[in-house]
Amino acid sequence: xxxxxxxxxxxxxxxxxxxxxxxxxxxxxxxxxxxxxxxxxxxxxxxxxxxxxxxxxxxxxxxxxxxxxxxxxxxxxxxxxxxxxxxxxxxxxxxxxxxxxxxxxxxxxxxxxxxxxxxxxxxxxxxxxxxxxxxxxxxxxxxxxxxxxxxxxxxxxxxxxxxxxxxxxxxxxxxxxxxxxxxxxxxxxxxxxxxxxxxxxxxxxxxxxxxxxxxxxxxxxxxxxxxxxxxxxxxxxxxxxxxxxxxxxxxxxxxxxxxxxxxxxxxxxxxxxxxxxxxxxxxxxxxxxxxxxxx
Length: 295
Known about the structure:
11 strands, Endonuclease, Chain A, 14 helices, 4-stranded mixed beta sheet, alpha/beta, about 45% helix, globular, 5-stranded mixed beta sheet
């Protein structure tokens, strides 16, 4: 959506209508266009707006995450995040959050023709400054794309940065991180399980019956016979998952799959949850407890 807005020249430097939304300093967008954007797209448009005026800005933290496509849970900030040299004074404003580089050089890359912190640096920054849930989401995202040596690279960068705050959380998130998580919802769910002290599940366990492969379960507690499944809305609308099926057909197939899983003699319970549980951890915790997942 943000590509289309830029291509069509819908972002303007002055307010044309009273209902136009102020995206960033000197940038406005029609309210209908703004409302059609996802939260991370809205933040990315703020970043792009700042880049238009200040092309040498090095964007970081959540702003770099939006540009790099790193998925996170929760609201996206109205303030953009950037790095500045340690010698420069803090220039944070109500629209801009400025972070000082310190002695360690900041590695950068480009995204949308903007300068942003490297993928590794961005994930490490997120792991130490975001919530633990988002720390795990960012680490999992990186591991799913670059598993070879990625954990050691993150730990090495952390040891070199020696941050005053967030180091313990970052190391914990890196330790919990896995390349097996198939969605940000699964990553967030696993982080909540860790926070609540639940027994660690087996991930992406294959299940078979007499008809063959049933599929992979997101979470599996073999001693308790409990399967856990995160239901993201994407599986009902994304062509990558639907394979030409209608949403109704996907629901029917999911129900058939769950029935086959429940019929297995070593499966005692199948518990499912969606984004409403992930954004309300207490709800997910209660659901897992009722299903018999031990703490």
